[in-house]
Amino acid sequence: MYVEIPICANQRLYGWRAMRPTHGTDAETTDDVLTVRTEYLDAHTIHIVMSRNPQAFIYIFEFSTVSTSPDDWMFAGVSITPEITFTTPDPCRDYQFRVLVVLRSTNPQHQIAVLRPRAIQVTLPEFAVETDQITVEHPVYNSAEGTVTIYVKWKNPRGYADADIYGYEGAAVYPIQCLSPEDELPTPTVEQVTGGGRLKVSLPAEMLEGKCRLWVEVRMLPRCVRLEPFSVQQSLELDCERLADLDICKHEVSPQCTDVIDVWGSNGNVTVMWAPPAEFGDPLYYHIRYGAAEMQCTDVIDVWGSNGNVTVMWAPPAEFGDPLYYHIRYGAAEMQGVPPFVSWTIASRREVKAAGDAKSLSMQLDEDTDYGIQICAVYNEQRKKPKFGVVGVTPFICTSCKTIRM
């Protein structure tokens, strides 16, 4: 007896007749009901295990679609054991399989048995993206457009290929705790990449001024109608504390108020001198607030001058470098409380700006009047409002010669 057995995985057989020997050997179609277990390893791969035939020499597996071409049998594989693993071209189809068994027999008329077709139960993997398959790429800052772009990337559902994804719809971004309302945010765009997809979210750079929390989502549509669409969802938290290496965040420093101030002058002309905050470089400008003050204990400050000319000198806030500028507030001061529990406030304040590389400021003030001053370094135009309410007021007075007792 001679039996031709296909060995190529992509070879097709059209029923057992393709194997029929030329010496009159017949194939027997059997109605034996054998125990069979079928399993989808992924959307395209099926594993079949059946009970053993004690007379079997080789098992030849074939499969076909149930609905479209049930008689068009395709080669699944050959095995010496009653099990096989093979791939199907389309997970949207229902399949059936049959087995041609080459028997160990001395009877030339009883050497091949054909088991009747059996339907394969469809148990496709869940069409869902797990959390460990979703990643958020590091944001990219575009200074020309003033935007920050974030990519949310995901892989295909486990067991599915790119061809199994029909497309995407409903891409959206929702601000949960941000400066921009929802209707001002641009619509995200979806890009299909090999093995998955990604969502491109472009946001205004000013959203990094404070902590911003976003929720993004997009619906993934399967090609098979038997599967349900899946919503890819991800939360995003954006702020310069988390993204300190972004260029925009490197300069996103809140105003820094200096501690060390020196003031001198005469005849109401006052000069205030300061040093810039350390580690931040030159600021845009200095915001200076001054005016009549109420007493409050402060850090090291130096003020000098004569005849109303006052100079104030300060050292910059530590750890921030040179600011963009100093915001200086000064004015006549008033004292409250009794020693040692005293504080100063600026009663009638004036505010000026000094260049970021300035170290002192000269002013013309009234003699024999209590004054207070506050100096804050500004590092970014988008965050330029100093917290004067929590910064101590530095008091000083220009004493005229007539009030000095000899």
UniProtKB/TrEMBL annotation:
InterPro entries: Fn3_nem, Ig-like_fold, Macroglobln_a2
Residue span(s) of domain Fibronectin type-III: 295-403
Domain Alpha-2-macroglobulin: 82-153
Molecular function via GO: endopeptidase inhibitor activity
Annotated Pfam families: A2M (PF00207), Fn3_nematode (PF24221)
Protein name in the entry: Fibronectin type-III domain-containing protein
Organism: Ascaris lumbricoides
